[in-house]
């Protein structure tokens, strides 16, 4: 049974003990949790429940979890945190380049996972007290820049308070 928290998290993990451990820790933190043990079931649950965030293992029995990232990114910017035993630099870079928002290697601490879930939701404008973003990340070339907007000249837009400080320095 799901709680009344407005954040739904889909966990795609094939190892039952890890799945139940993640589920319990997220439910203690008052998240709604939906579970899937395969990529196919994960895609079905994603399409049915429209989660606010996906926690994804890469080593799944039917397909590589990277394919789920690709499938989701074709149509959506829902945040994805990879949670995998693959600890190589190239594995991490590939997942992030495909559109994952964060990457945690197993073994992991449950408090770190919950903190990263909260941080990703905050960055994507989904956490309580933040402005809703129209998209969680923006693609520029091959890399994503997160929720930060970068101009084509490489500069970042200034906030109104930064602009007024700059005017005061000149004045």
General description of the model:
This protein is of the alpha/beta class. It is built from six helices and seven strands, in the order E-H-E-H-E-H-E-H-E-H-E-E-H. Strand 4, helix 4 and strand 5 form a beta-alpha-beta unit. The chain starts with 7 loop residues before the first strand and ends with a helix.
Give a quick set of tags describing it.
16% strand; two-stranded antiparallel ribbon; single chain; five-stranded parallel β-sheet; globular; alpha/beta; 7 strands
Biggest sheet architecture: 5 strands, parallel
- H/E order of the elements? EHEHEHEHEHEEH
What share of the residues lie within helices? 25-40%
Class by SSE composition: alpha/beta
**Shape descriptor:** globular
Q: How much strand content do the residues show?
A: 15-25%
What's the Cα radius of gyration?
18 Å
Count of alpha and pi helical runs:
6
Mean pLDDT: 81
Count of β-strands? 7
Q: What are the segments in which pLDDT stays under 50 over at least 5 consecutive residues? A: 129-135, 137-170
Q: Identify the quaternary structure here.
A: single chain
Strands of the widest sheet, in order across it, are: 2-1-3-4-5
Instruction: Give the termini separation.
Output: 60 Å
Précis, in short:
The chain is an alpha/beta fold.
Q: What order do the helices and strands come in, and which of them pair?
A:
Elements (H helix, E strand, L loop, with lengths): L7 E5 L3 H13 L3 E5 L2 H11 L3 E4 L8 H9 L6 E5 L4 H10 L3 E4 L4 H14 L15 E2 L2 E2 L15 H11 L1
Helix pairs in contact: 1-5
